[in-house]
């Protein structure tokens, strides 16, 4: 489907080309995460936007379509400006975008992106693309940041309670595809999660990793049951459903996940997995991942682990925490967010249970429960060039100092301790 970049904006932007001071030739703007509950933002998503939107030039047909819609919509249309871009730049936008490396955690209140027009006839263009560019960055950066925070929490508990943290990249699985607003959103958020972890069931995220980041296979999954594939066997056939999962998918070095709360989770653990199918679980050479999917996550995960240990035994690791045998693990995929992950792992630690026993599946809280205010994202103009001289521009609302914006042309440097800092560009000597 063709994407008309001229119409990928807010309506009022169409009138802005008439609002700048006379002789304005350049506008420089930046994007930052101003705060929220996070002290760092994991920058991600710019490359997707550039490849999807900026590598395709606008056409005469785009200009005509935009003219018809914008004028009928009640706004002036900058036909001369767009025709100039078509004629002089073959339809490619004359802008320069500077950004920190994608996937980099950066303290909030730093400039993540700086954009400026390169053609003095197109000063209006910098802010015209704000809507598309800001949206392309705030969403994947917010998902990557939430995912990164979860990784920090899980890593902390692994270091505290497990012999190794090597498996952390498989400890948070993306279950969010069905909870996203669209396939496009699932793909953008899904690939952002893969900055931090290797586990996903969001295939559109894999496709974005291949298409935009040249990652042939960025994430992995395993065969897993859902309630319908268990309940289709009937309540009396629950054990047969589980046995079939082992027969079909388990084996040396293989993992299989089985949702086990269709009827009575405790009966499934104590009498089916831990008794009737116990020898089969042990003898396959693979790993059974039991998935509880209802109830209070903290209580259910701890009780699930205790009951599985009562059936299959446990070892005590070098940190003094109990671990299930390697052929049994648990994944919690219901009610999972960064707070419940922290609460579950904290309760496990208090009971002497290693964090290595459990993985998490995160859905809506990963891909959907974020918005532009999660990290207080904004794109603001910080400098304009008028009559050949740069002017610092900024906003400083008396009613909200948190919305004070940065001034001048900016640069982001990495100091000797590896910390990124935003400074005035002239201080770099360039």
Note down, in words, how this protein is organized.
It contains 14 helices and 17 strands. The longest helix has 32 residues, at 130-161. Helices cover 37% and strands 19% of the residues. The strands form five sheets. Strands 7-6-13-12-9-8 form a six-stranded parallel sheet. Strands 3-5-1-14-15 form a five-stranded antiparallel sheet. Strands 2-4 form a two-stranded antiparallel ribbon. The two termini are 42 Å apart. The chain has 430 residues and is α/β, with parallel strands linked by helices. It folds into two domains: 5-34 and 58-91 and 94-128 and 376-428, no CATH class; 149-367, Aldolase class I (TIM Barrel).
Map the helices and strands.
Elements: E1 24-33, E2 40-42, H1 46-54, H2 60-72, H3 79-89, E3 95-99, E4 105-107, E5 111-117, H4 125-128, H5 130-161, E6 172-174, H6 183-193, E7 199-200, H7 203-213, H8 227-231, H9 238-249, E8 255-259, H10 265-276, H11 278-283, E9 287-291, H12 297-312, E10 315-316, E11 322-323, E12 328-332, H13 338-350, E13 358-362, H14 364-367, E14 377-386, E15 389-392, E16 410-414, E17 420-424
Parallel strand pairs: 6-7, 6-13, 8-9, 9-12, 12-13
Antiparallel strand pairs: 1-5, 1-14, 2-4, 3-5, 10-11, 14-15, 16-17
Helix pairs in contact: 5-6, 5-13, 6-7, 10-12, 12-13
End-to-end Cα distance: 42 Å
Provide the spatial order of strands within the biggest beta sheet: 7-6-13-12-9-8
As for the number of domains, it is: 2
| Global outline | elongated
The description of the largest β-sheet is: 6 strands, parallel
Strand content of the residues, in percent? Answer: 15-25%
Name the CATH superfamily classification of the largest domain.
Aldolase class I
Structural class by secondary-structure content: alpha/beta
Looking at CATH, which topology of the largest domain would you report?
A: TIM Barrel
Mean pLDDT: 96
Number of strands: 17
Gross CATH architecture of the largest domain: Alpha-Beta Barrel
Low-confidence stretches: none
- Supply the number of helical segments: 14
What is the helix content?
25-40%
Radius of gyration: 26 Å
Question: CATH class of the largest domain, please?
Answer: Alpha Beta
């Amino acid at each position: 489907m063709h994407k008309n970049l001229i119409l990928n904006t807010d309506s009022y932007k169409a009138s802005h080309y008439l609002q700048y001071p006379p002789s304005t030739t350049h506008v420089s703007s930046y994007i930052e995460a101003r705060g929220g509950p996070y002290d760092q933002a994991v920058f991600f998503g710019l490359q997707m936007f550039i490849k999807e939107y900026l590598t395709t030039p606008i056409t005469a047909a785009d200009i005509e379509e935009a003219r018809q819609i914008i004028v009928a919509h009640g706004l002036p249309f900058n036909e001369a400006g767009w025709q100039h871009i078509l004629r002089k730049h073959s339809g490619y936008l004359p802008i320069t975008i500077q950004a920190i490396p994608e996937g980099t955690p950066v303290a909030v209140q730093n400039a993540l992106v700086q954009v400026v027009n390169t053609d003095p006839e197109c000063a209006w263009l910098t802010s015209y693309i704000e809507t598309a560019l800001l949206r392309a960055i705030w969403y994947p950066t917010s998902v990557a940041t939430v995912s990164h925070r979860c990784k920090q929490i899980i890593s902390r508990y692994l270091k505290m309670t497990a012999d190794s943290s090597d498996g952390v990249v498989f400890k948070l699985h993306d279950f969010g595809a069905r909870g996203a607003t669209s396939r496009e959103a699932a793909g953008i958020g899904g690939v952002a999660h893969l900055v931090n972890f290797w586990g996903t069931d969001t295939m559109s995220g894999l496709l974005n990793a291949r298409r935009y980041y040249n990652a042939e296979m960025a994430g992995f999954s395993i065969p897993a049951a859902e309630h319908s594939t268990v309940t289709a066997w009937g309540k009396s056939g629950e054990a047969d459903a589980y046995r079939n999962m082992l027969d079909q998918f388990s084996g040396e070095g293989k993992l299989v996940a089985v949702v086990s709360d269709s009827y009575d989770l405790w009966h499934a653990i104590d009498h089916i997995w831990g008794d009737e199918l116990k020898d089969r679980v042990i003898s396959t050479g693979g790993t059974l991942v039991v998935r509880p999917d209802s109830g209070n996550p903290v209580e259910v995960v701890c009780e699930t682990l205790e009951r599985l240990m009562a059936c299959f035994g446990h070892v005590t690791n070098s940190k003094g925490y109990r671990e299930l045998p390697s052929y049994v693990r648990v994944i919690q995929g219901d009610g999972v967010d960064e707070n419940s992950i922290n609460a579950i792992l904290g309760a496990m630690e208090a009971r002497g249970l290693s964090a290595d026993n459990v993985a998490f599946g995160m859905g809506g809280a990963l891909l959907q429960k974020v918005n532009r205010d999660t990290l207080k994202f904004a794109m603001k103009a910080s400098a304009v060039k008028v009559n050949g001289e740069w002017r610092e521009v900024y906003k400083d609302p008396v009613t909200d100092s948190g919305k004070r914006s940065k001034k001048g042309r900016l640069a982001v440097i990495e100091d000797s301790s590896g910390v990124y800092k935003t400074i005035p560009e002239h201080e770099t000597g360039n």
